Amino acid sequence: MSQSQTQTAGQSLTPADGSRYSVSHVTEYQYSLPVPHSRQLLRLSPRNLAWQQCHASRIQVDPQPDEWFELDDFYGNHLVQFALRTPHTQLTVRVDSQVLVLPHAEQWVAENSLSWERVRQQLANGGTEVLDPIQYLFPSTFIPIDNALSHYALPSFTPERPLLSALLDFTGRIFNDFTFDPTATTIATPVETLLQEKKGVCQDFAHLQIACLRSLGLAARYVSGYILTQPPPGEERMIGADASHAWVSVYCPPYGWVDIDPTNNVLADTQHITVAWGRDFGDVSPMHGIIFGGGAHQLDVQVTVMPQ
């Protein structure tokens, strides 16, 4: 068994009015034949942000890895790489994290955001102030740019409409137009197919919204994380609980990046725990790698998010 303990660096956030969570993410592979060599990459530790602090994140791997390396990737996500050179028929990765999330969506006032055309022009003009969002303007592995996608989004993006107002309207349309169906898609399902079939999961809806926004010339990135498993009394249970969740972050001056969840039609706030972000799912996959041998395999993933 190997484990890594990650503690928060820097100034602590004030916990008043914040939400504390205990997050458990267990991934287990069962192989029909021995695996003599395996190499894996993990992105499973919550990020430290202005509104979020990961107090501790412990990663446990069974069997004991022969190599272990930690770093931050290009996007600032915490990355763990490990290798196993001992034959094994089972691989278990457990990550236990303690996280504090402060309210932050209340600062995002729709009518105070710049018009979407003005934001698009700022991004097109370039400059040092938009160096970060510019990288999220272009096609990527799972994100095409297409006229059909911009056409679907345009009814929400009327002339001179504040970007956040348009974004809220567009998110509501995705929520109403599409059906959450875990059996309808796979990771390989193209966004164009999703637009036609109108069925999918959080990953699909995030990819769709990002593709539509980029097709309009706006900067949007993919966010992976978790949402609260047991909501407070009186609040509806969110779709996607007990699994990794995905939503969208949009460059929206003067607020910088604004996070929004098309699966649940809400601005991401204290119920959303951010783990990683990138251009699309390919940049933030929680666990991926290569194995030699192993035959057939079975995968079991269990996620629990509990308020403290």
From TrEMBL:
Among InterPro entries, the record links this protein to: Bac_transglu_N, Papain-like_cys_pep_sf, Transglutaminase-like
Q: What SUPFAM superfamilies does this protein map onto?
A: Cysteine proteinases
Q: Where is the signal peptide?
A: none
Which parts of the sequence belong to the Transglutaminase-like domain? 194-264
Gene3D superfamilies assigned to the protein according to its UniProt record, in alphabetical order: 3.10.620.30
Pfam families found in the cross-reference section: Bact_transglu_N, Transglut_core
Q: What is this protein called?
A: Transglutaminase family protein
Classification lineage: Bacteria, Pseudomonadati, Pseudomonadota, Gammaproteobacteria, Enterobacterales
